[in-house]
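Sat 14:20. Reprocessing the chain from the morning session after the first attempt stalled halfway. Input below, unchanged.
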Amino acid sequence: MNRLSLHTYLQTELLIDINQEIISQFFSTRELGKGEYFIKTGQVCKHLGFLEKGFVKYYKTDDKGQEVVCDFAKESDWITQYQSFIFQTASPLSIIAIEPSTLQIISFDNLQLLYAQVPSIEKHSRKVIENVFFSALERNNELQVLRAEERYVKFAKENPDIINRVPQYDIASYLGIAPQSLSRIKSNYRG
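Finished this time. Tokens:
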């Protein structure tokens, strides 16, 4: 659980020389308690957030009223429901804090102003969006072609920090596995 401020992230990860005053001009801090929503299904997503501390999950509710976990985000991840944020339409999913979380948030209008003032951030944003898109394609492919055991092993190897931070039923939902099956798979996995 590495806490990284937005300012440090922009300077070290993106190599963007930006001062704290510019960040403060466009971003504000938002705290989410455990179980508090960043956005609920049906709301319009008004902000893009950089997760400095904490953990969130993205989920939908299926036609049987069951939660289906779509994704997780941890420190140094950007969070939003992108379609809702860009088009200012109702979100098809919810984003909720699994742990107390600290975010730096920016509105759509302020993001456009920031892009105009620091063009390199817009270029980086495009790369982040491309990575999210390709990750979603990969995840969709894995759900279609990998067996349950293979999905869990891949997830555990790529996300060892998440395994201990997220309830098993959320991991099972994310992987498309029944919780009882995940319990059996975990007992056979020697990671």
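Strands lie at 28-32, 37-39, 47-53, 55-61, 67-74, 78-79, 94-97, 101-107.
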